[in-house]
């Protein structure tokens, strides 16, 4: 019987970091199941993307030890390959937004056992201009919150750290005039920010109603937050985004497959919680069930 080949990619600087013992526990599970492994430690940003592009097609599985940002790098490498290995994800970041969709926790040995059990799920991948993302693309105000919030604060109080950072940003907010095309529906608005979500969670918060297939239905959930002339209402933005049942008038929600956003000034973007590009035009599309991942059955 042919041994499965696993490319093990480890980000040693991920949020909660990888203890040697927990990583070894996971690798021992692969070894006990007769997997052949090659191990690489990332050295710098986008290193994981480069390594997968150059070596990924030789493997059956890509095992990613890191946070959602590391997984984003892996996805950007995998999407360039003709033969795409299955992902085995070992989430070591602070929030683990993406892994939660598939029953994956920061228990490394458990994640390895899930991979060896062999249950595979497909998931949609987003593409924003030339970059890919797994679960969220955000633009406008608050884009810096995910990657500028201090790591130590996130470790101490979890996702509340994002709320605190966002509240501090509110006095400096300004609206962006944008022209939007949502699956052919065209309109113009003054927006504060927007989120394009594939899945349920962002920054540790449930932002989309729970459903079994939100990560593979071929659609994005869009949250658009309009400008309000009342400064006091600015402080209700987090509440309106986190609680769709409140139906706040300046928060709009859509389900679409593709989006084109044009703005009069460059919009800052974040992809999977990492800093993205600033651009006048963003073309975002949902690539349905583009990749596969080992998931809890």
Automatic annotation (TrEMBL):
Pfam families (UniProt xref): DAGK_cat, YegS_C
UniProt family annotation: Belongs to the diacylglycerol/lipid kinase family.
Organism placement in taxonomy: Bacteria, Bacillati, Bacillota, Erysipelotrichia, Erysipelotrichales
Keywords noted in UniProt: ATP-binding, Kinase, Lipid biosynthesis, Lipid metabolism, Magnesium, Metal-binding, Nucleotide-binding, Phospholipid biosynthesis, Phospholipid metabolism, Transferase
Record-given protein name: DAGKc domain-containing protein
Cofactor: Mg(2+)
GO biological process: phospholipid biosynthetic process
Positions of the DAGKc domain: 1-132
InterPro entries noted in UniProt: ATP-NAD_kinase_N (IPR017438), Diacylglycerol/lipid_kinase (IPR005218), Diacylglycerol_kinase_cat_dom (IPR001206), Lipid_Phosphate_FormReg (IPR050187), NAD/diacylglycerol_kinase_sf (IPR016064), YegS/DAGK_C (IPR045540)
Entry GO CC: plasma membrane
GO function terms (MF aspect): ATP binding; ATP-dependent diacylglycerol kinase activity; metal ion binding
SMART domains: DAGKc
Organism: Holdemanella biformis
């Amino acid at each position: 019987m042919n041994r499965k080949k696993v490319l093990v990619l480890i980000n040693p600087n991920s949020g909660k970091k990888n203890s040697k013992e927990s990583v070894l526990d996971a690798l021992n599970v692969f070894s006990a199941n007769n997997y052949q492994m090659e191990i690489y430690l990332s050295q710098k940003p986008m290193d994981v993307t480069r390594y997968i592009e150059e070596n990924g097609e030789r493997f059956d599985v890509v095992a990613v030890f890191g946070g959602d940002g590391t997984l984003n790098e892996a996805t950007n490498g995998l999407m360039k390959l003709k033969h795409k290995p299955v992902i085995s994800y070992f989430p070591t970041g602070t929030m683990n937004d993406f892994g939660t969709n598939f029953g994956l926790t920061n228990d490394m040995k458990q994640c390895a056992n899930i991979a060896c059990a062999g249950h595979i799920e497909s998931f949609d991948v987003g593409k924003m201009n030339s970059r890919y993302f797994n679960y969220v693309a955000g633009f406008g105000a608050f884009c810096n919150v995910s990657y500028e919030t201090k790591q130590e604060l996130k470790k101490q109080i979890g996702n509340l750290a994002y709320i605190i950072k966002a509240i501090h940003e509110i006095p400096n907010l300004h609206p962006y005039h944008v022209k939007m095309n949502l699956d052919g529906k065209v309109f113009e608005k003054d927006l504060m920010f927007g989120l394009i979500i594939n899945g349920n969670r962002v920054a540790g918060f449930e932002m989309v109603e729970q459903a079994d297939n939100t990560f593979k239905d071929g659609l994005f959930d869009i949250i658009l937050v309009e400008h309000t002339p009342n400064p006091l209402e600015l402080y209700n933005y987090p509440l309106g985004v986190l609680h769709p049942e409140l139906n706040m008038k300046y928060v709009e929600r859509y389900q679409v497959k593709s989006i084109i956003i044009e703005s009069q000034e460059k919009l800052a973007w974040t992809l999977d919680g990492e800093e993205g590009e600033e651009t006048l035009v963003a073309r975002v599309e949902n690539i349905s069930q583009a990749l596969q991942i080992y998931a809890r059955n």
